[in-house]
Specification:
The complex is a heterodimer of chains A (about 70) and B (about 900).
Chain A lengths: L9 E6 L3 H10 L8 E6 L7 H9 L4 E5 L1
Parallel strand pairs in A: 1-2, 1-3
Chain B lengths: L3 E7 L14 H5 L3 E3 L8 E3 L1 E2 L11 E2 L5 H5 L4 H5 L12 E7 L2 E3 L8 H5 L9 E3 H8 L20 E5 L18 H15 L4 E6 L9 H10 L3 E13 L2 E8 L4 E6 L1 E4 L9 H8 L24 E3 L9 H18 L25 E6 L11 H9 L4 E7 L5 H13 L4 E6 L2 H14 L7 E5 L1 H5 L6 H20 L7 E4 L4 E5 L3 H12 L3 E5 L21 H14 L3 E4 L3 E8 L2 E8 L2 E7 L1 E4 L3 E3 L13 E3 H8 L2 H5 L3 E8 L13 H15 L4 E6 L9 H9 L3 E4 L7 E5 L2 E8 L4 E5 L3 E6 L1 E3 L3 H7 L26 E3 L9 H21 L1 E4 L4 E3 L9 H5 L5 E6 L2 E6 L9 H5 L5 E3 L4 H13 L2
Parallel strand pairs in B: 7-15, 8-14, 9-10, 9-14, 10-11, 16-17, 16-18, 18-19, 21-22, 21-27, 22-23, 27-38, 29-36, 30-31, 30-36, 31-32
Antiparallel strand pairs in B: 1-6, 2-3, 4-5, 11-12, 12-13, 20-39, 24-25, 25-26, 28-37, 33-34, 34-35, 40-43, 41-42
Helix pairs in contact in B: 5-6, 6-7, 9-22, 10-14, 11-12, 14-25, 15-16, 15-22, 17-19, 19-20
Chain lengths: ~70, ~900
C-alpha cells in the first residue's frame, strides 16, 4: 500500500475527565487534525481491559489510541 | 445579621443566555476588532465574545464600548448572522434587590498599576512584560500557542530575566506587604518556558524565595535542576542596550553588576481590588491599611460586620488552594447563619412514572445541525438517512438546534409517538449536554440511562472543517457506534443512599479540631470530638502571644469553653480511634476511652490530628542551657522579668528544615522568629538580636513585622544551605560562627541565648492512614484529594482534612481549613442522602471468586470484601464509587458490571466500528 493512499482507521478510548475533555477543547479551539480516529468515551483509562484492544485489532482496526 | 437586602446591578449582555448556543458566528461577522483583555491584549477579539472558552456561562456577550450599534445605531450584522436569534439590543441594565441571610465577599485581587511597573521599563520597553502577559505567552491556548516570542520583533526569547517583588515588599509604592504567590508563579512560568524550549536561559532575581506552600519547595528545586538560575539580589533598573535589555543589580556581596537579556518578566504582585473602597462602603465593612478586607488571626473569614464573610485574595494575597479553602470556609459560616431556614427555598421537580420499555430495542436518532456548526461541514441529512437504515432504528430525524427548548419538547413527543425506548443524539459533547437530554428522557417517562450521544461537532465538524466528505463518513461511523451501544443500554436506578448517622467525628482536639467541631455544631449537627491527650487546645496551649496582638490564651480559653458547653459537641479526651468501618453517611468508629471501648455512629469524619515541633539535636540543643527552641523562648518571654535580662540573642532559622532532616519548609518559623525578636525588643529595647536565615518567609501582611523588626535594629544575615552557621562551646559559653557576605568575613558572636527555629512534623498519622485508607505525602502529612480543587477532602468520600495534619501552617490558616472542612463535611449531613451515579460498579456474587484484586486496586476504598457463608466476596460501596472501572478491567472472572460502560456495550461499539472496515 502506497504511503499516499494509506489512511489508517484508528479507534480511540478517551477518559471522560481528561482526554475526552481535551478533544472537546480541540474542537472549541478549531484545531484541525486528520479525520482517521473514532472515539469511545470511558470514565477512566483504568477501565481499559486488554480485551478491548485485542477486539479492536480483530475487527480490523489499524491502530488503537488510549488517552487518559 | 441574617436579614440583608443586597442591591445588585446587572449589566446587559445583549445576547440572550437562554438562546445563545456559543457557536461564535456573531463574532465571525462582527466588523469591530478589539484587544482581547483575557489575553492581556496580546491577541485580538471581536465586539461579541466570551472571555475564554471555559467561561461560565458558556455564552457570548457584546462589549458595549466596542459595539457599533450601541454607540452609533448602525451595523447590527450580528442580529441577522445569529441563527438562534439570541442578539437582543433591548436588554437594559437591571437593579435587583436580593433578600439574603448572609453575604460572602469574593471580589479577588486588583492589578499593580502601570506607574509602578514603569519603574522597570514596562510600557517604555516592549520586551518588558508582566507575569500575567508571560503566562498567556506560555499558554498552549494563548495568543502565540505557547511560543515565547518577544513582543518587539516576534523573535524567540533566549535569555529571560524574572524580577521579583514587583509592587510588593515595596514601601515606595505603598505596598509594604508580600504578595505571597509571585515567587511560586515565577518558578512555574520559568519551568513551563523551559519545557517549551529547554535552551531558554532563565534567571530569577529575588530577595527571598518565598515558596512556603505545601510541597512548593520541591517545585523550586526541580526548577533549579532544570537549569533555572536563582540570583539573590536587588534590581536597580532596566535599560535598553541595543537589541537587548540591560539589568543593573546589586548582588549579595554588595557588588554592582550589569547583565543583558532578550526579555524581562515582571511577576507582578497582588493589589487590593480596584473597587475595594466602594465595596467596603456598600457592605459596611472595614478595610486594613492596604485596602484589603480587615479580618483577625482567629476570625480570618469574618469581616467587621456580622453576617458578612470574605474569601479569596480580598482577605489578603493568596494562591488558589488557599482561596478555594477560604471559599468552603466562608460557605460554612454562611450555612451556620442560615441554619434555621435551610432548605426553605428548595423546589423539587416531579417526573412522570417510567414506562415499561419492553424487550426489543426501538431506537430514535436525532442528528443535530447546531446551526451551521455541524451542518456547515457534515451532510446532516445523509447522516440522518444513514441512521434510519440501521437495525433497530425506528425513527431518525435532523434538528437545527437539538438543545433548544422547542426541540426538547419535540423529542419528548417523538419518543411517545414512536414508542422509542432508546435515544441517540448526534450533536455535541455529552460532557456538557448529556444531562439536558437525559432530563428530556425523564420528562418522556424514559429512564435517563437509555440515552447515548455521538459527538459529531467537537470531535468532527469543528476539527475536520476542510474535509466535509470525510467528516460526514466519520459522523456516520460515530452514529453507528452510538446506536450499537444504545441497543445494549439498560435502565439503571437513580440511587440515593440515606445518611443514617447525622453526626460528625472530629479526630484531634487542637484549634483546628475545635474550630471544625464548633462549625459543625453551629450548622446544627452533632459532633464527637476525640482527643488523644488529656486536654483540648493542642499546640495553641504553647502560644503566649501573637504578632497581630491578640491574646491566644484568652482565645483558647473561650474556644474551649464554647466547645465544652455546646450541647451538640461530645468531647472524648484521653481517647483514640481504634477502628472505623462503613462509608460516607454510615460510619461506625470504635474508640478507646479511659472507661473502655465505645462505638460512635456518624456520617462524616474530619481529620485534625495536628503536628508537633521537630526535636532538634543540632547546634548543641540539649547540651547547652543557652540553646532553646523558639517555642521555649516564647515561654520565657511570657515572664517579663526574665525577658528583660536577655541582652544578646542569635536566632538560627530552618533548623532541621528545608533539606536537613526535613525536606520541606515549615512556613511558621520565620514569623515566629520575628515575633520573638519584637517581643524581646519590647521588653528590652537595647537588646542585640541577630537572625541567621535562608529565606525570610514572612509572607502576606506578616512582612510588615519583618520590616518593623529591621527598623528596630534586628540584624538579619543570610546563609546558604551549604554553609550553615557553626555553634561551639568554649568555657561554658556558646559561640556562633557564620559568614557575613557583605563584609565577606567570618563573624563570631557570643550570645546569651541561641534560639533555634524548628519546623513542624506530622504526628499520629500512620495508624489513622491505615484505618481510614487515606494517603500520606512523602513528607508524612495527609494527602488531600486535589491540592487546588479539593483541598480539604480526601479521595475517600466523607473524610475531610484540616490543620497541621495537612501540612505546616499558621493558626489563621488552620482555622480557615477547619471551617472549610466543617463546611464540606456538613454537605452530606444537611442533604440527608448521598446520590450515587448510575455508572457505579456492581459485582455479581456468583461469578466473584473473592480474590480481592478489585479491593486492592480501588483508589476510592469503594470495594470491601465480605463473608458470604464460608466464602469471601467483593461488594461495591456504591456511595464511594466513582465509576472509573479499574475493578472491572482487572476482574479475572468478569464479575464486575459498570453501569453504562459494560463490557458488552464497549465491545459492541468496537464491533460497530469494525463493520464498515
Amino acid at each position: 500500500m502506497g504511503k499516499e493512499t494509506f489512511e489508517p482507521r484508528i479507534i480511540g478510548f478517551l477518559c471522560n475527565w481528561c482526554c475526552y475533555a481535551a478533544a472537546d477543547s480541540a474542537g472549541v479551539a478549531r484545531f484541525q487534525y486528520p479525520p482517521n480516529i473514532r472515539t469511545i468515551r470511558i470514565m477512566c483509562t483504568g477501565r481499559m481491559d486488554p480485551l478491548f484492544i485485542i477486539d479492536a485489532f480483530s475487527v480490523g482496526t489499524d491502530g488503537v489510541f488510549v488517552g487518559g | 445579621m441574617g436579614n440583608f437586602t443586597a442591591r445588585v446591578r446587572r449589566e446587559p449582555r445583549y445576547i440572550d443566555l437562554g438562546l445563545c448556543t456559543a457557536c461564535g458566528i456573531c463574532a465571525n461577522y462582527c466588523p469591530v476588532i478589539i484587544g482581547d483583555a483575557y489575553n492581556e491584549n496580546l491577541a485580538l477579539t471581536k465586539g461579541p465574545h466570551r472571555d475564554y472558552v471555559q467561561a461560565v456561562p458558556a455564552s457570548f456577550y457584546i462589549d458595549p464600548a466596542a459595539c457599533l450599534y450601541l454607540n452609533h445605531e448602525t451595523c447590527q450584522i450580528c442580529v441577522s448572522a445569529c441563527q438562534a436569534k439570541a442578539i437582543n439590543f433591548y436588554e437594559q441594565e437591571e437593579t435587583v434587590d436580593l433578600e439574603v441571610g448572609a453575604v460572602i465577599l469574593a471580589p479577588g485581587f486588583g492589578r499593580i498599576s502601570e506607574e509602578v511597573l514603569s519603574t522597570y521599563g514596562y510600557g517604555r520597553l516592549a520586551d518588558v512584560v508582566t507575569g500575567m502577559e508571560f503566562e498567556r505567552l506560555t499558554s498552549a491556548s494563548g495568543p502565540t500557542m505557547g511560543k515565547i516570542i518577544r513582543p518587539s520583533d516576534g523573535q524567540h526569547a533566549h535569555r529571560i530575566a524574572f524580577l521579583q517583588c514587583i509592587g510588593s515588599r515595596d514601601v515606595s509604592c505603598g505596598n509594604g506587604y508580600c504578595s505571597s504567590v509571585c515567587c511560586m508563579y515565577a518558578v512555574k512560568e520559568a519551568v513551563v518556558a523551559k519545557e517549551h524550549d529547554p535552551d531558554i536561559e532563565i534567571s530569577i532575581f529575588y530577595m527571598d524565595m518565598r515558596t512556603q506552600g505545601k510541597e512548593f519547595d520541591y517545585a523550586r528545586l526541580r526548577a533549579k535542576e532544570k537549569g533555572v538560575r536563582f540570583v539573590r539580589s536587588r534590581v536597580a533598573g532596566v535599560q535598553e542596550n541595543g537589541n537587548a535589555l540591560e539589568i543593573s543589580y546589586v548582588n549579595e556581596a554588595g557588588k554592582h553588576l550589569k547583565e543583558s537579556f532578550d526579555m524581562v518578566v515582571l511577576p507582578e504582585g497582588l493589589e487590593s481590588p480596584g473597587d475595594a473602597q466602594s465595596l467596603a462602603r456598600a457592605a459596611g465593612i472595614d478595610l486594613n491599611h492596604y485596602h484589603f478586607c480587615s479580618t483577625g488571626s482567629f476570625v480570618p473569614l469574618q469581616t467587621t460586620r456580622p453576617g458578612i464573610f470574605v474569601s479569596g485574595a480580598f482577605q489578603g494575597p493568596k494562591d488558589v488552594p488557599e482561596s478555594v479553602t477560604d471559599a468552603s470556609g466562608a460557605a460554612a459560616l454562611a450555612a451556620e447563619a442560615l441554619k434555621m431556614v435551610r432548605g426553605s427555598r428548595v423546589e423539587s421537580k416531579e417526573y412522570p412514572a417510567e414506562i415499561d420499555i419492553g424487550q426489543a430495542p426501538r431506537i430514535g436518532v436525532f442528528v443535530c445541525s447546531c446551526g451551521t456548526n455541524v451542518g456547515g461541514v457534515v451532510d446532516v441529512k445523509a447522516v440522518a438517512d444513514y441512521a434510519a437504515s440501521l437495525d433497530d432504528v425506528v425513527f431518525a430525524d435532523m434538528n437545527l438546534f437539538s438543545c433548544a427548548q422547542n426541540t426538547q419538547e419535540a423529542i419528548t413527543e417523538k419518543i411517545s409517538e414512536n414508542r422509542l425506548n432508546r435515544v441517540v443524539v448526534a450533536a455535541c459533547t455529552p460532557r456538557t449536554h448529556e444531562p439536558l437530554f437525559q432530563e428530556t428522557l425523564k420528562n418522556a417517562g424514559l429512564n435517563p440511562c437509555l440515552f447515548e450521544m455521538a459527538n459529531i461537532r467537537d470531535h468532527c465538524s469543528w476539527v475536520h472543517a476542510a474535509v466535509p466528505a470525510e467528516a460526514t463518513e466519520k459522523s456516520k461511523d460515530l452514529v453507528r457506534m452510538a446506536v450499537a451501544k444504545a441497543r445494549r443500554l439498560e435502565p439503571l436506578p437513580e440511587q440515593k443512599l440515606p445518611v443514617t448517622h447525622k453526626a460528625a467525628l472530629v479526630i484531634g482536639g487542637g484549634m483546628a479540631g475545635m474550630t471544625a467541631a464548633l462549625s459543625i455544631a453551629g450548622q446544627g449537627f452533632d459532633c464527637f470530638l476525640v482527643e488523644e491527650s488529656g486536654e483540648l487546645g493542642g499546640n495553641l496551649r504553647h502560644i503566649r502571644f501573637m504578632l497581630s496582638g491578640e491574646d491566644p490564651r484568652k482565645i483558647l480559653q473561650d474556644t474551649e469553653e464554647r466547645v465544652r458547653s455546646n450541647p451538640h459537641i461530645h468531647v472524648y479526651t484521653n481517647s483514640s480511634v481504634e477502628d472505623v468501618s462503613g462509608y460516607v453517611g454510615n460510619f461506625v468508629a470504635s474508640i478507646r476511652t479511659p472507661e473502655g471501648h465505645e462505638n460512635l455512629e456518624h456520617g462524616v469524619i474530619v481529620v485534625a490530628t495536628g503536628g508537633k515541633p521537630y526535636e532538634p539535636k543540632q547546634y548543641l540543643y540539649g547540651k547547652s542551657t543557652q540553646v532553646v527552641t523558639q517555642g521555649e523562648l516564647e515561654e520565657r518571654l511570657s515572664d517579663s522579668d526574665e525577658a528583660k535580662r536577655i541582652n544578646n540573642v542569635v536566632m538560627i532559622q530552618c533548623v532541621g528544615s528545608r533539606g536537613q532532616d526535613l525536606p520541606y519548609c515549615s512556613k511558621i518559623c520565620c514569623g515566629q522568629a520575628v515575633k520573638n525578636a519584637l517581643k524581646i525588643l519590647e521588653l528590652n529595647p537595647s537588646a542585640n538580636i541577630t537572625v541567621l536565615y535562608r529565606d525570610m518567609r514572612t509572607y502576606g501582611f506578616m512582612e510588615d513585622y519583618y520590616q518593623l523588626a529591621r527598623e528596630k535594629g534586628v540584624i538579619f544575615v543570610h546563609f546558604d544551605k551549604e554553609s550553615p552557621p557553626e555553634v561551639t562551646e568554649k568555657g561554658g559559653r556558646i559561640q556562633v560562627e557564620f559568614v557575613d557576605k557583605i563584609l565577606d568575613e567570618r563573624v563570631i558572636l557570643e550570645p546569651d541565648l541561641l534560639a533555634i527555629s524548628v519546623g513542624i512534623v506530622p504526628s499520629r498519622v500512620e495508624a489513622l492512614s491505615k484505618i481510614l485508607k487515606i494517603p500520606l505525602t512523602g513528607d508524612g502529612f495527609f494527602l488531600e484529594a486535589h491540592p487546588k480543587l479539593r483541598p480539604v477532602e480526601f479521595t475517600v468520600d466523607g473524610v475531610y482534612l484540616c490543620g497541621l495534619a495537612h501540612g505546616p501552617k499558621p493558626i489563621s490558616e488552620s482555622i480557615v481549613q477547619a471551617t472549610a472542612a466543617a463546611g464540606k463535611a456538613c454537605i452530606p449531613l444537611a442533604k440527608g442522602y448521598v446520590t450515587v451515579d448510575p455508572i457505579v460498579s456492581s459485582i455479581d456474587p456468583d461469578s466473584c471468586i473473592g480474590c480481592g484484586i478489585c479491593e486492592s486496586l480501588c483508589p476510592y476504598a469503594a470495594i470491601k470484601m465480605i463473608k458470604v457463608g464460608k466464602k469471601k466476596k467483593a461488594e461495591t460501596i456504591s456511595a464511594s464509587c466513582k465509576g472509573c472501572g479499574i475493578c472491572a478491567a482487572h476482574c479475572p472472572t468478569l464479575a464486575i458490571y459498570m453501569g453504562g460502560f459494560t463490557n458488552e456495550q464497549i465491545l459492541s461499539q468496537i464491533r460497530a466500528f469494525g463493520e464498515e472496515l
